[in-house]
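Chain A, query sequence.
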Amino acid sequence: MDCGSWLLAGCLLALLVVGGGAAVTLTDQTATDSTATLIVRSADGTASANETVAVGALTPAQRDLFERARNTTEPIDIPSDVSRDPFVEYWYVRDDNRTYEVAVAVS
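Chain A, predicted structure.
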């Protein structure tokens, strides 16, 4: 093969790699549209401080979601405009000297 053929083959390979990466990126973005639910249960025992977030540190929307989930035994849907990060980063929420275990399920 001459130099021009190698150059053409290299460019085609580069386009395949970039195109494949773009397809993977677009596919991953649609995966974030999944449904997430919050589950809250009363915690047994003591939780360490680095696993616990105070209810006062939550946004008003997160507090409302936590309260609704705490008052039922069913999972509560997490709206797309409410960040689920505190419920993922911490295992427990502390409120009025009580500790609650939190879990996020994604489907």
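Residues 21-32 have pLDDT under 50 and may be disordered. The CA atoms of residues 80 and 98 lie 28 Å apart.
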